[in-house]
Structure to design on (402 residues):
């Protein structure tokens, strides 16, 4: 466990877009630190033991079954070796904890199969000695002012989500964590810098393969560039996208290391919102339903939450991009064009992987508004943007389409 803590050789993390709902959150690090503090104050027999039952992510025809079958085997093996009838609390995300088979599941690689979740596998093995609970946030949160555990029974068994779990923990308030890159500690900034530098030097980074998240080395590199620019502004004098020759990345990184990475890079960042603000920002971005929109589960993005997110964290351009994208999708071309033009005014946009798409969308909006001069201008820029690494960003399923 301690090897994953800041300062350890194995410390690393994966960056995700702020609207994504995935489990790799900075709060797991805070949990680990809290457990270490507790364990340091009690005897060995009373200490909390932590395990990570999953194997390294790999590409697999049935990825979720691969992950959960191996996790179940490891958990059962570990529990079989414990003494004194020890109990375990297993923390897993969402559908992994379900106690029923998920029919015709489609994974991130578009493979379709019946998924046997971890909760189902453990229920089959342990029977009534295993219980699985899920958190639930009711639409009318005024019904509860504290957490409540509601057990599944014959009366509610056919009501989602009682049909999938042994009980539901109803929370009065949604509890959203934050992604690592939105916590600009010295250790996190150093990791992002080294990741970008390693790619610049070797066209690769040193992270474990992240096939499970479809976040390859290139995607992490692109996100790293964006967050270095977000935090250090002019000190990171680099534009990933350009229409003419510009400063090379290794030169910009050398200057940034010289000027800011002298042991305490956090002292030089331009943006540093309080933790509670970042938590709320992630809440707003997640509730904008961008993922469901991209997966075609819903027909539109919730712009109300994007507006709240932008007001809360205006320096981060993602909410602004999605506001423009959403307006264009709904045929509100004048509004969409205005959002994109505001985006283009920021130097940070030239370190956003979606900039060519934003210009194409802006050209579409301009054309629909009969502004042919602006349409041609934006279309020309979109066609002529390039980067020094020849990276093709088209086809990213997480950042929209034309």
């Amino acid at each position: 466990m301690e090897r994953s803590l800041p300062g350890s050789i194995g410390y690393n993390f994966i960056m995700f877009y702020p609207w994504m709902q995935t489990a790799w959150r900075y709060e797991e690090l805070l949990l680990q630190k809290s457990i270490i503090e507790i364990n340091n104050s009690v005897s060995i027999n009373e200490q909390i033991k932590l395990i990570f039952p999953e194997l390294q992510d790999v590409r697999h025809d049935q990825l979720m079954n691969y992950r959960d079958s191996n996790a179940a085997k490891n958990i059962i093996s570990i529990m079989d070796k414990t003494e004194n009838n020890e109990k375990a609390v297993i923390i897993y995300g969402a559908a992994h904890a379900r106690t029923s088979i998920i029919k015709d599941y489609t994974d991130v690689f578009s493979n379709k199969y019946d998924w046997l979740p971890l909760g189902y596998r453990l229920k089959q093995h342990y029977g009534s000695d295993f219980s699985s609970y899920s958190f639930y946030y009711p639409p009318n949160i005024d019904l509860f002012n504290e957490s409540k555990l509601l057990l599944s029974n014959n009366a509610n068994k056919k009501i989602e989500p009682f049909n999938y779990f042994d009980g539901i923990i109803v929370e009065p308030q949604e509890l959203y964590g934050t992604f690592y890159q939105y916590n600009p500690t010295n250790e996190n900034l150093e990791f992002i810098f080294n990741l970008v530098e390693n790619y610049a030097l070797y066209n690769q980074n040193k992270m474990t393969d992240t096939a499970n998240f479809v976040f390859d080395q290139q995607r992490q590199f692109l996100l790293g560039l964006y967050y270095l620019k977000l935090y250090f502004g002019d000190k990171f004098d680099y534009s990933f996208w350009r229409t003419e020759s510009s400063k090379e990345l290794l030169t910009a990184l050398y200057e940034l290391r010289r000027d800011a990475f002298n042991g305490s890079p956090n002292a030089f960042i331009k943006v540093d919102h309080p933790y509670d603000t970042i938590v709320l920002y992630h809440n707003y971005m997640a509730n904008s339903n961008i993922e469901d929109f991209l997966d075609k589960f819903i027909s539109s993005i919730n712009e109300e939450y994007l507006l709240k997110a932008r007001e809360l964290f205006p320096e981060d351009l993602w909410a602004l991009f999605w506001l423009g994208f959403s307006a264009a999708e709904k045929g509100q071309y004048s509004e969409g064009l205005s959002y994109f033009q505001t985006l283009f005014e920021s130097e940070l946009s030239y370190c956003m992987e979606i900039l060519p798409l934003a210009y194409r969308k802006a050209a579409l909006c301009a054309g629909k508004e009969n502004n042919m001069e602006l349409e041609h201008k934006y279309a020309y820029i979109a066609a002529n943007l390039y980067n020094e690494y020849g990276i093709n960003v088209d086809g990213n399923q997480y950042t929209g389409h034309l």
The radius of gyration is 23 Å.
